[in-house]
Amino acid sequence: MAEPLLSSCCRCYSLRAGSLISGIMGILLSIISIIVIFTTRVEFRTILMDWLPQNAVKIIFALNLCMTILISLLMIFGVLKKNHYLMMPWVILGIMLAIGLLISVIYTAVVYFIDGFVLGGTLWIIIGLLSVVIYTYMWTVVYSHFVVQKNENERGLYSKQPYRR
């Protein structure tokens, strides 16, 4: 059996509450991001496919955010129903997103520095790394609750008496 990395969220909330907060915040931030994508004139770019038209990039981002909403809903439902299998997609996607966010923050800051925007690069790296730390902590909270729930579910499978007539 795996051990959870944390025993509480922010030292005053349960892992369950922290997981629910993470899921709700993921949904809210995704909805806000979708609104920002389609209502502002900010130019969004991808790191690898910078040749894509702006509308295609916006649609790709919006689809990713919709998937985040779906996976966050699954995770919330898994927490409420004590089903660790429903939490698993969020746990797997979450660590990949944390790595992607870190790469994106570093890449964007380097581009700012290369283009001579030292203040912008510095702010981007400070705020970006702070975001990565917060996101990684919240992922750790959800992962810890996932492990606790998985251990409880597995213990429940083996502790039940076999059916006898």
TrEMBL record:
Kindly indicate whether the keyword tRNA processing belongs to this entry: no
User: Which intervals of the chain form a coiled coil?
Assistant: none
User: Transmembrane segments in this chain: where?
Assistant: 20-39, 59-80, 92-114, 120-142
Q: Which UniProt keywords apply?
A: Membrane, Transmembrane, Transmembrane helix
The protein here is known as: Uncharacterized protein
